[in-house]
């Protein structure tokens, strides 16, 4: 497996934020030196810690967009999926990144293997309150209502949410429950037993599921709170790489 | 009619036993057993809903009876100031926790008898004290341990009664 084998990279849960400049630096290194070797880069949600709307003039958003646009201009296709933190990220921001927005879930042929991509929060069906909230946050009417508020008001509410989770130590405060086996099996069955790649749970690993006699691989991407990393896939399979 | 007494005021709720017989019977039994006394609205999201009936102050969960059948296919909608049962992702898992909608939450309505489409069962509406609901929806919230959107100052149901 040389660097020049056609390959695709996957990242998610970077949670980029102004208070973690060292992680933003890792992201710049990743998009500047590593990703240009790949045919495509898929970002499967939670690129940012919070996203108040595509009209946000926050410099971090501009910096990230510039890095991805440079990558895309150099020939690597960039794809952006919404997560739960950046559920309001839209087509306008994707365009600034030179990226194509993609829906959740997305089925594709990945160097010869049928692969399904999803952020992962929809699979945590054990978290009843979250699934109820997810329905609320993804409702287009509610999103439109929220985005109709002035940017300053939206930022203030987002900062309130940020203070809330930082007060209880970010990663633990969310108490992100893991995906439930039933939800995973149901998804794999629905899409005819693909390989699955997702994030959200912050439990990077490779799992094997047998569904209706079919062996399916499930790859979970790492979060970038402490250290960046990515999944590299080519015709021979996938490998997790830390920065 | 149910009255929930809180320090913000009294919330009067008219229950629809015709449209949600099992849910209403279950709820009334919790009221009469004193279950809701000294429970809190532990999850408050303005613009969405206020949820309570499951925890004592300090987030101590109260034991519940067996769950009830989901009656969300009764045609009642999760409109603002209606009361509905909270549940897990298993459609028929509601027991004691309930929530009061503070918006027209169409996306919570029943669409089909499938795990994704069952929706949340509406079994009544606030007929007096919507101003109290509005006070509660605006309280400051934060995280408490694993829980988010928890009112910083406890919103306690001091008494729940059938009138």
Calculate Rg of chain B over CA atoms.
Answer: 14 Å
Strands of the widest sheet of chain A, in order across it, are: 4-3-2-1-10-11
Helical coverage of chain A, percent range? 25-40%
Largest binding interface between chains: A-B, 24 and 26 residues
Note down, in words, how this protein is organized:
The complex is a heterodimer of chains A (243) and B (163). Helices cover 35% and strands 24% of the residues of chain A. With 243 residues, chain A is α/β, with parallel strands linked by helices. Chain A has a single domain (8-242), classed as 4-Layer Sandwich (Purple Acid Phosphatase, chain A, domain 2). Chain A is globular, with a radius of gyration of 17 Å. The two termini of chain A are 18 Å apart. Residues 168-174 of chain A have low confidence and may be disordered. Chain B is globular and about 40 Å long. In chain B, strands 1, 2, 3, 4, 5, 6, 7, 8, 11 and 12 form a ten-stranded antiparallel sheet that branches. Chain B has a two-stranded antiparallel sheet with strand order 9-10. Chain B has two helices and twelve strands; from the N terminus they run ββαββββββαββββ. In chain B, strand 9 and strand 10 form a beta hairpin. Chain B has one domain: Cyclophilin (Beta Barrel), CATH 2.40.100. The model of chain B has no long low-confidence stretch (mean pLDDT 95). Chain B is mostly beta strands and 163 residues long. The chains are: A alpha/beta (243), B mainly beta (163).
